[in-house]
# Entry
Amino acid sequence: MAAVKGSLGVVGASGFIGMELARQASRVGWRVVGFSRRPQPAGDPVAEWRRWDDAPDLSGLKVVANLAGKPVDCRWTESNQRAMRDSRIGVTEA
# Structure
């Protein structure tokens, strides 16, 4: 097993891509902290779940990957692309 590199926060870890990111990161030595509006019990690959809300607890994290936002499985019209971009930038800035 790889040495722990630190804690990685994954916003949207309960989703398809977020869970795969958590698996890959855990496999190479990151301690994964998942964020969700509906936290789940801890278990492989997510060592800890925290609630994603207006004031999320980011303490102890080296890196945060934000996968939350408007789903990308839609037509990529200008308005949808803008909504996808804005939903991610707004959450990240907040």
Q: What stands out?
A: The longest strand covers residues 30-36. The mean pLDDT is 89. Residues 31 and 40 are 16 Å apart (CA to CA). The radius of gyration is 14 Å.
